[in-house]
Write a structure and sequence with these properties.
Distance between the termini of chain A: 31 Å
Strand content of chain A: under 5%
Number of helices of chain B: 29
Number of strands of chain A: 0
Largest sheet of chain B: 7 strands, mixed
Strand order of the largest sheet of chain B: 13-12-27-26-25-14-15
Oligomer: heterodimer
Structural class of chain B: alpha/beta
Number of strands of chain B: 36
Helix content of chain A: over 70%
Chain lengths: ~70, ~950
């Protein structure tokens, strides 16, 4: 598994959720990643986010950060 | 004709108010429209007949079924005479006896009297009827003009691999012609000539059966009352003497068949009239292509090897299972529980699939289980659950008979789901309209007696744009079923969706360029769908196998809700499932995030129920999906896999990536009938069982749970579920059952939608459609009748996001892939049958302009290149595909269609984007690329060390 694969997946999920208002979009992303990503994928994404999250769209970064427990839900 | 025949009441069943009449002094009440023949048969007074059968409309040509009716002159044919209130009918009298015997005498005067050596001896309606009417002599002799004299008779046409046509035995009853028209809907047969020269003809004079339009569905053979159309297997072996009713193992239609046998040898498979999915019809695969089950390539002994470069070594079951268990345990000891996983098969039974996912969860201790639905209908499960609340189609197949408009998207049923296609075509002949959304001009766009109201040849990858354009028209032109939406759907979600699709950017005019179809066509098609009394959506992998597959499923569900086309017969959103048990394998908890019944592993209450039954804790975190497993194999964190009946090295996209991942693993265990392409990378081969050896259930695309019954003992000596139980036990988790019925009992205990299902009940009452539980004790043909499973229907926003896979100057064409009638999936089954005569190789369909620009003619060897790889195959120049699009099938491993497909996938489910690959095509003068790699691989693939 590569970071590039996860970044693409996260950006795709964000692209779907982008049609929704921002709060809902972030929540949708977070719930999707929590529901479908195996923990090692979330860990890898967390490491990537910690390293700057290159390649992620703004929405993908926000949603993934919440899903990976880096940012707590408000 | 069949041995141990199912009662044939002569003419079709009718619906209508009751009519009471008297037949031979017996009072009988039947629905209005019923024939006198059928009414008589229902009281056990069968009337002799030759041209009538209850699979067909009455024809009235043979004059055998004459009856006397009080107040009616002459002796009308009972098959074409409808019942009337108070009618008094006599079916037996000296006059009728004489008439019938006279008619039969004429028939027999032109029929060879070779009954004792005839293949249909004992299974011939002509023979039976001659006996029934007491024919004792033929006064006319046999010397005059006839069709059977060896010097004059027409030759037997045995060009079809499965049945022979012997014109000398034909009585010109037209049953075959009518079956082809009414049952199959192909119109390949006709009666040619007049009077004495009349004969059944397949196509034009220069055609034989094989070269004609005949699709070998077998309906004509089934309908033939003599040996004129006869299965070659019966000619070769004689009539079967025992019958087992079971379920076909090909597509998701799930046809019921009578396996007719001599001992353990299948003589023929005959479609069962009692089958809820097929009601007596079949296709070339189910009817005839079952020979793979005993093909010489079947591997029936377990085999192991240390390295994938070693030859295989045949071993006993105990050694093979101990070898696999020890290695799985060693991997987990070194790399953690999550370093192994399993794949379940949609070709296996519910019971077999259930035990594999249980083994992975309970014995492996991980949720790393997935299924081949990942690469086909995973978006269906996701999209329909989001919108309706359950991961399944909404209707039974019979529902299409009440549809007035059919919106067919990304599916080619005449090739991939032929028996359903026959139902659909019948409805079209009755006047229903069809809108076809498909880049290719499939047969349902135009073929005999079929002409689509609209064909939307969209650019591959623009499905969601088409749905948004439809929705825009429906919302902005006031075509929404406001009452349905208000009562059945979430109001706020609807309002938001309506505002979204009403935006000008979602109008047909704004999207027409992207879609490649004029706005006015989109508008007119949308209006037709929205204004129908009953409009139904049917779809296939052309919807799901895209980067927006799940979005598209939700977009279709939105459309159905907005127009109120949900919750009654004739409407709905209906996936046409690719494999026989895709629905079932998903139902059985094959996804890494869901336990059986589509319940998330994070749900503590659900886990608790399984933990109590299984006696082990269940991981609350989702496991790896199949593509994730392959990716993790390449980073070294996933190192062992159990693969049940799937050939991911051929069927999954980006073949070289799949191969590299398999090669990187420490242990690959394959359970299959054959040494498939994946087995080239395996260390353990566990021989699997064919559907003829299985005992259990399949669940078809309409959620119908059908019994699969063994017609022969397992050639391997062990059922697949027993193999899995032994492996789980060897892994340290004791697992055993008294039999597959006990597995189903456990499924029913743990899965609310299966609560009322048991083998005993299925055997006693026939198939049932889930949910079967206290709320739906007899099953559920149509879902969401009074409300959605999730409560209120949920509209989802479906922004059109173009795929990242784009054409470029280097790769200017779009490749899309699919299936052909005679072959099935990776071809492991059908390639080992005579079906390959119709499709010996995968061909590349290319538009004539694209071909001309590249100097390509039909039959030329061409190279097909994408950024992933290069393959060679022959070209078929055609206008069936639009300019800029090429198409091929993936049935032959040496073609390697998936060598060129990409890593792109659906955003929600990772279902691969098989349907959009940017490619270039150029003439090639020899096999290159993949063919060379495959030839090398193939050489070592089948090596088995001689017994020591």
């Amino acid at each position: 598994m590569t970071v590039a694969e996860l970044v693409r997946m996260a950006n795709q999920i964000a692209a779907f959720n982008a049609a929704y208002p921002r709060d809902e979009a972030i929540r949708g992303m977070e719930e999707h990643i929590r529901a479908f990503w195996e923990p090692r994928m979330r860990r890898m994404m967390a490491e990537h986010l910690a390293a700057g999250g290159e390649g992620l769209t703004e929405l993908a970064r926000e949603g993934a950060a919440r899903a990976c427990g880096i940012i707590q839900r408000a | 004709m069949t041995i141990h025949p199912i009662p044939d009441l002569g003419t079709r069943k009718r619906q209508g108010p009751p009519v009471t009449l008297t037949i031979d002094g017996v009072s009988v009440t039947v629905p209005e429209g019923t024939s006198v023949m059928r009414a008589a048969a229902e009281i056990g007074h069968a009337i002799p007949r030759l041209c009538a059968t209850d699979m067909l409309e009455a024809w009235g040509s043979c004059r055998m079924c004459l009856v006397e009716i009080e107040g009616v002159r002459g002796t009308p044919a009972s098959c074409t005479t409808p019942v009337r209130e108070g009618m008094v009918v006599t079916t037996r009298s000296p006059r009728l006896e004489k008439l019938r015997r006279g008619v039969m005498e004429l028939y027999i005067s032109d029929h060879p009297l070779d009954c004792l050596t005839c293949a249909a001896n004992g299974d011939c309606e002509l023979q039976d009827t001659a006996g029934e009417v007491g024919l004792r002599e033929v006064r006319y002799g046999f010397a005059g003009d006839n069709h059977f004299d060896p010097d004059r008779r027409a030759p037997v046409d045995d060009s079809n691999p499965y049945f022979a046509y012997d014109p000398s035995k034909c009585i010109v009853c037209s049953r075959c012609v009518r079956a082809c028209e009414e049952v199959q809907g192909t119109f390949a047969l006709t009666i040619e000539g007049r009077g004495f020269d009349s004969r059944v003809s397949f196509g034009s004079a220069s055609d034989n059966v094989f070269s004609s339009d005949c699709v070998s569905c077998g309906a004509c053979v089934q309908a033939c009352p003599t040996a004129t159309l006869q299965e070659k297997s019966v000619i070769a072996h004689g009539l079967p003497n025992r019958v087992v009713e079971t379920t076909c193992a090909y597509c998701g239609v799930g046809c019921s068949f009578r396996a007719e046998l001599q001992g353990n040898e299948v003589i023929r498979m005959v479609p069962a009239k009692t089958g809820g999915a097929n009601e007596g019809h079949s296709c070339v695969k189910g009817r005839f292509a079952w020979g793979y089950a005993t093909h010489r390539d079947r591997v029936t002994s377990p085999m192991i090897r240390e390295r994938i470069t070693d030859p295989w070594r045949k071993v006993g079951w105990d050694e093979a299972i101990a070898f696999a268990a020890e290695r799985f345990r060693a991997i987990q000891a070194a790399h953690g529980k999550g370093a192994i996983g399993g794949i379940t098969s949609s070709r296996c039974t519910n019971e077999e699939v259930y035990v594999v996912q249980k083994m992975v969860r309970a014995a492996f201790g991980t949720n790393n289980v997935d299924t081949c639905a990942r690469v086909c209908h995973a978006p269906t499960g996701y999209g329909l659950k989001q919108t309706f609340g359950t991961s399944a189609g909404t209707q039974d197949f019979r529902s299409v008979e009440q549809a007035d408009v059919i919106l067919l998207i990304g599916a080619n049923p005449t090739d991939a789901h032929p028996v359903f296609a026959s139902r659909l075509k019948r409805r079209l002949r009755q006047g229903a309209k069809i809108i076809v959304v498909d880049p290719r001009r499939i047969d349902l766009v135009r073929s005999p007696h079929v002409s689509a109201a609209f064909h939307i040849p969209l650019r591959p990858g623009t499905n969601v744009a088409v749905m948004n354009a439809f929705a825009h028209v429906i919302v902005t032109e006031g075509l929404v079923d406001e009452a349905f939406v208000a009562e059945r759907c979430e109001t706020e979600e609807y309002r938001r969706w309506a505002a979204f699709v009403a935006e000008p950017r979602n109008s047909p005019e704004a999207l027409a360029d992207a879609i490649g179809v004029p706005a006015e066509t989109l508008r007119a098609a949308a209006r037709l769908y929205a204004t129908a009394r009953n409009a139904a959506i049917y779809y296939g992998l052309g919807v799901t196998e895209h980067s927006q597959g799940s979005t598209m499923v939700m977009a279709m569900a939105n459309l159905a809700m907005a127009t109120g086309n949900i919750g009654r017969p004739g409407v709905g959103v209906n996936p046409l499932r690719g494999q026989n048990n895709v629905q079932g394998s998903c139902d059985m908890g094959s996804f890494p995030h869901e336990l059986p019944g589509y319940r998330h592993v994070s749900d503590a209450a659900v886990r608790a129920a399984f933990e109590a039954e299984w006696g082990v804790p269940i991981d609350p975190e989702p496991g790896l999906r199949l593509p994730n497993m392959l990716a993790a194999a390449l980073d070294g964190s996933f190192r062992g896999i159990f693969i049940q009946g799937e050939d991911i090295a051929q069927s999954d996209p980006d073949t070289q990536h799949v191969q590299a991942a398999l090669q990187a693993m420490d242990l690959v265990v394959v359970q299959d009938l054959f040494l498939n392409e994946t087995a080239a990378f395996a260390h353990v081969f566990l021989p699997g069982t064919s559907f003829l050896e299985k005992d259990g259930t399949f669940t078809n695309a309409e959620r119908r749970i059908n019994r699969v019954r063994p017609v022969m003992p397992p050639l391997t000596g062990l059922s697949e579920w027993e193999t899995v139980c032994r492996l789980a036990t060897a892994m340290g988790y004791p697992m055993s059952y008294d039999g597959p019925a006990a597995i189903m009992d456990e499924i029913a205990r743990l899965t609310p939608s299966f609560a009322g299902v048991s083998h005993a009940r299925l055997d006693a009452e026939g198939s049932m459609q889930w949910p079967v539980n206290d709320a739906h004790p007899n099953g559920t043909p149509v879902m969401h009748v009074d409300g959605f499973v999730r409560g209120k229907g949920r509209f989802m926003l479906t922004e059109f996001v173009p795929t990242e896979e784009r054409t470029t100057r280097r790769f200017p064409l779009i490749l899309t892939t699919g299936r052909i009638l005679s072959q099935y999936n990776v071809g492991a089954q059908t390639r080992r049958t005579a079906n390959s005569l119709w499709h010996p190789e995968d061909m590349l369909e290319i538009h004539l302009f694209d071909a001309e620009q590249r100097g390509i003619a039909t039959g030329d060897v061409v190279a097909l290149m994408s950024r992933k790889g290069e393959i060679t195959l022959r070209a078929l120049v055609t206008d069936r595909v639009p300019q800029g699009v090429v198409y091929t099938t993936f049935h032959h491993p040496e073609t390697g269609a998936n060598v060129v497909t990409t890593e792109f996938s659906d955003w929600a489910t990772n279902c691969p984007e098989y349907k959009v690959t940017a490619v270039e095509v150029r003439p090639a003068n020899r096999p290159v690329g993949w063919r060379e790699t495959y030839a090398t691989l193939h050489e070592t693939h089948y090596r088995v060390r001689a017994a020591e």
